[in-house]
Predict the 3D structure of the following.
Amino acid sequence: MKKIITTKNAPAPIGPYNQAVLSGNTLYTSGQIAINPESGELVLDSIENETKQVMENVKAVLDAADMTFDDVIKTSIFIADMHQFAKINTVYGSYFNEETAPARETVEVANLPKFVNVEISVIAVK
């Protein structure tokens, strides 16, 4: 059985999808971009701040499902410019314990929603 997970602490979906779906003990999140949920504005002043907002949005969705980054088993990172990888990776890595970090792929793409620079989704298991 699936349960829809929503929170006002992360951006509302901008299409026909939900922030996350919990199926059994597994959480599947939609990709998060750097929309500040309070203002509705994009955070694009630096790739570091953009990535931090993305990770805070992911954190809010995890919190709504009573999970943490420790429960994340897989992440998908989509970036518009692989030259930004090191900066994105530094911020991303600060949210995980390196010894127990999840599996992940990082893919450079031509465009992302709202033409942002980074989008991240996760799968978590409690």
